[in-house]
Amino acid sequence: MKYYSTQNPDQKVSLSEAVIKGLAPDNGLYMPERIPTLSQDQIESLSSMSFQEIGYLVIGSLFSEDLTDGQIKELVGHTLTFDAPLVQVEDDVYSLELFHGPTLAFKDFGARFCSKLMSLLLTDSDQKVRVLVATSGDTGSAVANGFLGVEGVEVIILFPKGKVSLLQEKQFTTLGQNITALEVDGVFDDCQTLVKKAFLDPELNEKLLLTSANSINIARWIPQCLYYFYAYSRLPKNGKKVVFSVPSGNFGNIGAGILAQRMGLPIDQFVAATNVNKVVPDYLKGEEFLAKPSIQTVSNSMDVGNPSNFPRLLALYGNDGALFREKVKGYFYDDQETVKAIQSVKPNGYTLDPHGAVGYLGLKAFMDGNPGYVGVFLETAHPGKFRDVVEEALGEELVLPERLAAFLEGEKDVIPMGKGFEEFKGFLKNLP
Ligand SMILES: *Cc1c(COP(=O)(O)O)cnc(C)c1O
Predict the structure, then answer these.
(1) Measured between alpha carbons, how far is 306 from 280 in angstroms, rounded to an integer?
(2) Which of helix, strand or coil describes residue 379?
(3) Start-to-end C-alpha separation, the chain
(4) What is the rounded CA–CA span in Å between residue 373 and residue 94?
(5) How many other C-beta atoms are found inside a 10 Å radius of the C-beta of residue 292?
(6) What's the pLDDT band for 270 if we cut at 50, 70, 90?
(7) Cα separation of 375 and 270, whole Å?
(8) 400: CA distance to ligand 1 center in Å?
(9) Pairing with 329, which of 77, 109, 184, 275 sits 20 to 30 Å away (CA)?
(10) How much is the pTM?
(11) Are strands 3-5 and 8-13 parallel, antiparallel or unpaired?
(12) How far is CA 16 from the centre of its chain?
């Protein structure tokens, strides 16, 4: 299978090149040249398959030309080591809990897959790979922990100073080994811009093998489709249509859901739910796509003013904006509404995190106006990761899972960095 750049569909590369490059040299995002579809029988048989078996089937249909059966098993086996349970919250409303991995956010799926795939593709190379990651919080922790100790790979994480939660920060600034954290005096979009500039800088690329583990990388992005197949197969549908609501920032996660839909999974509708960084909901209402500076919110992992996966979403709908607007509905919520949702769902015996709360609100808004659906919202992080917000909303202390509490013990170690490109470039050029 070849992968094309969204900037130039004639520009095709191999799986290996797409993964190692991350971003296409023309600044486009890589996309599979063909989207394989599962048969009706295969879709029906998902309900009797395990999560891992679903993984072999779906990843096999995408990667079987490029990887051996053994490699596909190894890749999926390494990725799906924890469950993604569906938990009923109300009648016809389910939470898809994606936070049962090592860093308690859905990004563990993509990060684990990505590190494994890179190490499989790099076995014959003796050049050190530098993974550059811009993070608004959870990407940093998932990628750092996914790549920790992986030989031949060095991870450099850029995060906005003072704009990620303490727990998030601890998960990627305390690890040492092959993980370096740069504390950037700016916002998330500044971090993302620095990373993008580094990938496009000829001098740096001459000297270093740079790659990305952001959701722009297909190795991070594609595996996220797996839990949509799994959740669909476990969802009690009772003849109703299915809607998934995805709390979104860079729009990789919802894009992976749309990929699953294009592969034949009968998801009728998507909800793109955001905080006040609402560039995509505005687009879906009929406005132009217009990137804006990011605004800080209580759902900080979605504070993205220029969602980098947008061209991918359009490509998945054949660059047909009308079809995109028909299949995906956008809703956005401010901090006050988010906190209220956490409070209002608590009596059902369920604790939302601020991101899941935005997904829940979007789902409810859609279902209120559209009867006949069963709905799933993606609960993208454990509420304990956003402890301050959730505890203040509920007026009670949360019990942190042990693996989360353990991160708090570590000592923070960062390199301060301005948001200008020259300083960052100088740092990279001087790497040993
Ligand atoms: C990254 C993140 C999101 C946004 O996901 P995208 O794929 O960037 O849209 C939502 N919730 C949490 C908890 C996250 O960490």
Answers:
(1) 9
(2) strand
(3) 36
(4) 12
(5) 14
(6) very high
(7) 10
(8) 20
(9) 109
(10) 0.92
(11) antiparallel
(12) 21
Active site residues: 107
Residue nearest to atom 1 of ligand 1 (CA): 301
Q: Comparing C-alpha atoms, which of 327, 292, 288, 322 is closest to residue 307?
A: 292
- The topology (CATH level 3) of 82-102+221-394 is Rossmann fold (3.40.50)
Order across the sheet with 415-417: list the strands: 209-212, 129-134, 153-160, 179-184, 415-417
DSSP class of residue 381?
Answer: B
Query: What are 420's two structure tokens?
Result: 């200008």
Question: pLDDT tens digits for 230-268?
Answer: 999 999 999 999 999 999 999 999 999 999 999 999 999
Q: Where are the domains of the chain?
A: 82-102+221-394
| Burial class of residue 345 (count of CB atoms within 10 Å of its CB; 0-12, 13-18, 19+) | buried
pLDDT tens column, 150-190: 888 899 999 999 988 888 899 999 999 999 999 999 998 89
| Structure tokens, 9 | 């569909």
248: three-class secondary structure by DSSP: coil
Residue type, 154: E
Instruction: Kindly give the distance from the C-alpha atom of residue 308 to the centroid of ligand 1, in angstroms, as a whole number.
Output: 12
Residues whose CB falls within 8 Å of the CB of residue 186, separated by 6 or more in sequence, listed in order: 160, 161, 418, 419
Backbone angles phi, psi at 177, to 5 degrees: 50, -125
Q: Are 268 and 373 in contact (CB under 8 A)?
A: yes
Q: Which of 92, 87, 88 is nearest to 374 (CA)?
A: 92
Mean pLDDT of 49-56: 98
User: How sure is the predictor about 124, in pLDDT bands with cuts at 50, 70 and 90?
Assistant: low
Distance CA 5, CA 364 (A): 36
Ligand 1 centroid, distance to 340 Cα (angstroms): 20
Pick the closest to residue 13 from 37, 31, 35 (CA basis): 31
Yes or no: say if 97 and 106 are a contact pair by the CB < 8 Å rule: no
